[in-house]
Design a protein that fits this description.
By secondary structure, the protein is α+β, with helices and mostly antiparallel strands. The protein is 38% helix and 14% strand. α6 links the parallel β5 and β6.
Amino acid sequence: MADMFQQFNEQMTTTPLARKIALLLILAATVAGGVVLWLWVQKPEFQILYTNLSSEDAASVVAKLKEGRIPYELSADSTAVSVPAERVHELRLQMAGQGLPQGGGVGFEIFDRNSFGTTEFVQKLNYRRALQGELSRTIGQLAEVSKARVHLVVPERTLFSERKEPSRASVVVTLRAGKRLSEGQVQGIIHLVSSSVEGLSPQTVTVVDSHGQILSRPGDESSPVQMTSAQLDYQKHLEKEIEGKIQSMLETVVGTGKAVVRVTSLLDLRQVEHTEEKFDPDTQVVRSEQRAQEQLSGSSASAGSSGVPGVLSNVPPGTQAGPRPGPPAPITRKRRMK
């Protein structure tokens, strides 16, 4: 062993300096590679815990992981969090029990924290924030929607103004890749929002996607009738039918393919109920009828002349007797019927 060490020492003494530096670099690289390999083997396998997180939800999830001293990885855009694969399901249950993630908005859990000295203005503002957050979470449950934001404008009621401003709402939806909302789903979102806010009509709800395209058809605020999907289909069918008729008429004059026709129809779908009461003087129809009924009851005249049996009937003739009681007055009863 001593001979091998002495031989190595002599060889290093006779080796040029450049070769010595190269050997040292190779040795350092080998040691570093071994350390990295050992750390990679010891590193747990990470799996995605949540994706498409908002900045608020990502901060809340990371804070909870730090409290539990759980290793995690955050994506470059801070929208995805990864944890060790063997703890994914456990952590999801724990986060769900704590109300995380919240979906990028504050819901009615804002009222779980009791704060003394809160003004009425702050209470109303918190209620509006909570309502917007709950609606956003509900709309986000649709399979085609990745996330949603709801903005509500509810004017304050005043005692000295007769004019009442209508409530308004705007909904911004971010759709998943390759997905789109049908007309029925858009109408469902509109009616969901309008039914959840007091004084909000479907005509004042606007739905916009993340590209700025309006998905809801603007309604006429003066019209109390909101067009359903079936009525919209009927309107489109009617417009196409009129376009076809006009285009066929023009092409017979200017030639085939030389006319372009666009038709926009405005349908009045209001339903009016009218009640009419009519009397025709030419027909003999009884309009009303009255009936009168009389009933007479009492003693007859002959009953008074025969006298009353008793003491007066035994008085001898010529004796002055007191006045005889006359017959009772007749009773008359009348009744009218219509």
